[in-house]
Write a structure and sequence with these properties.
Elements: E1 2-6, H1 14-23, E2 31-36, H2 39-53, E3 57-63, E4 66-72
Parallel strand pairs: 1-2
Antiparallel strand pairs: 2-4, 3-4
């Protein structure tokens, strides 16, 4: 199942906090797709997810200045 988090307009650490809350609700093989408009959030969120959890994360630019960070829950 895919879960979406809208963090447009939010700066770090808010997207990470939103992600951490959502991670408590998901199951193995679910994906969380975080929407952001801050380039610093892309690197901060991905680094956090990989370092703390070891989950794969992918960044996709959806349009100029808008990114989706796709995190797959693998445990």
């Amino acid at each position: 199942m895919d879960y979406h988090i809208d963090s447009i307009g939010e700066i770090c650490p808010v997207p990470i906090i939103m992600l951490e809350r959502k991670m408590k609700e998901v199951k193995k093989d679910d994906r969380i797709i975080l929407h952001t408009d801050h380039s610093c959030s892309t690197s901060n969120v991905v680094e956090h997810v990989i370092t703390k959890y070891g989950f794969p994360a992918e960044i996709k630019m959806i349009s100029e200045g808008i990114w989706h960070i796709i995190i797959t829950i693998n445990s």
